[in-house]
Amino acid sequence: MALQISPGHALSSAQRAPRSLHVDLVNQSGLVSSRSSQSQWSSRAVSFGSFACALGSFQHLRARCNRIHRCAKKKKGKGKQQVVEVEPEDLILPHEGMTVGELAEKIKKPVASIITFFFAEKGKPLTINDILDKELIEEVCINYELEFIFDDEKTTTAGDRGFLAEQIEGDFDLEPRPPVVTVMGHVDHGKTTLLDTLRQRSVAAGEAGGITQRIGAYTVELNNQQITFIDTPGHEAFTAMRARGAQVTDIAVLVVAADDGVMPQTREAIAHAKAAEVPIIVAINKIDKDGADPQQTRQMLSEEGLLAEDWGGDIPMVEVSAKKNINLDELLEILNLTAEISELKAVRKCEGAGVVLESTFDASKGSLATLLVQRGTLKKGDYAVSGTKFCRVRLMENEAGAEVVEAGPSMACQVTGFQDSPQAGDQFEVYPTAQEARAVADKRARETARAPLGFGGLGSESEQTMRLALILKTDAQGSIAAVKHMFSEVKDSKYVNLRWVLAAPGPISESDVELASTCPEGQRVMILGFNTQVSQNAERTAKERGIEIQNFKVIYELYETVVAALESDLDKEEQLTEKGIAEVKAVFNGRDGKVAGSEILEGTFTVGQRVHCIRKGKKMGEGKIRSIRRFKEEVKDIDEGNECGISLDGFDDWEAGDEARCFDVKLVSPELVTKK
Predict the structure, then answer these.
(1) pTM of model > 0.85
(2) Which residues contact 435 (CB under 8 A, 6 or more apart)?
(3) What is the chain's percent helix, strand, coil content, to nearest 5?
(4) DSSP 17
(5) Which end of the chain is more exposed for a tag (fewer CB within 10 A), N or C?
């Protein structure tokens, strides 16, 4: 198959999808070509950033074209040439999956038709509440000859686009801008303390459990140079936040504790920084502690591909102590030098655009969002859109809580005015009027509309499987991904069929309890809170209706407590420990059935233990040892090397040559996840 894509498909940042895409099918050659209605390249020189964006979008476009080709093959016999038009308003489907009922409503097809398709064509018996994964959803859409796109194929985040310096129509001057520095590393290696010392403002003491649990963005002035710092969490659950920090940064500072060395999240942070293709500076922290070994730390970093400059590499490494303020001036000097070499510039005199670093909900202020301006100037009173969320900027505050009137490129601020919490990682853009902004938000909302929330999709009831529905409320949008990541292994467990019914920032309210009350009988529902509040009405209603609410300040405490509670509710299962092996030499008739005359080859056989009968490698049956006779004497147990007669309760179909395996049986609580 040959695929030709016209230049119009190299998507610019201002154009997420081509306005019209035509696919011509020629039966004789099997050629599939794609071309845009726009056939001319723009006369404007394409910037490197725009070109990189186009390459990133190409993979998604190719996936769509492949699906179009498969769909078009179904039409091949209907004529010599077919034209299938694909518009940006095509179906946008969730890549995480949806139930049969939800898909039917989305594509406007009967549920029975979809169920019949899977049963007749694929041999899969499904029900309306069964969950379809991405591949099965794709099969249905191709069967109905629908053009569609998955939500993870839309390159709409500013993190994907990089800094928006030249991605705007018109002639604008590029002006120098401050660097954005992301501080990354393993949990408890001193990232927040390092920033705290630089900013001379205490943050670490206010973090629950002593770890950073969301992205903190701070624009500060050091040595007459403005720098925006992004502090990312080091705990393993916050992978998405670290990746988001790396995607919007100019310089990555990797903090590694000299007494701990390279750890799992250190490696992950290195991977994110390398993927973002940004300069890396290593701060070897805690050199004042007993057991600190900076040279060993350098050796471990070299094994990860980071070779220090003084070892002949190209990675600046500074030995510091964030607590005792040792060598921090040297670290700042390297930061400033790296920023100067990079010649960072952006358009300032235009409408603002950038990325949502974090969003949260405050009972008194409503939805709040931490924004990083990447292009233009964001001002109080502006009309902005992020994803499907509309915002009129009512208030802008810096990291100290002081009001600011405007924010230029590389500045971070917290904005009040979003109607609903935007998605962390999404791009935001300012529009000239409220009407234009609302029209964009409404159009995107129609594209991504989904079926209402519900408890369907948890599968059929089973004695071995607990069906668990979770309602999650958090302090911030980014925390949702972190909590879900923690429970990913539980979701895949054979013991629990888990589904997130609702996950949103904000306090736990009475409406959340009302939603939990609709949980069908036979399912367990829990309301989880992370770093949020529970309203008095919600507490009272939950108590009246017996709804379980758990609220936590530290993410790993949430995880461990919930998993322990679930494990205690599961039925205990048998754990078999092999104790001995015997060979059956002969079979005799006893008073209560057949007796296996056996020789003990290994271990010990004890009355009360369980014995499996193995014949030619196949288990024939099992039973509990009723009695053991050594000659004419009845004994409690017998050791290796002795011969005896063994009688079982529940099985006596022995044959000479059988193998008897003896087990000790204990009832234990099952583990939802494997302990590391």
Answers:
(1) no
(2) none
(3) 30, 35, 35
(4) S
(5) C
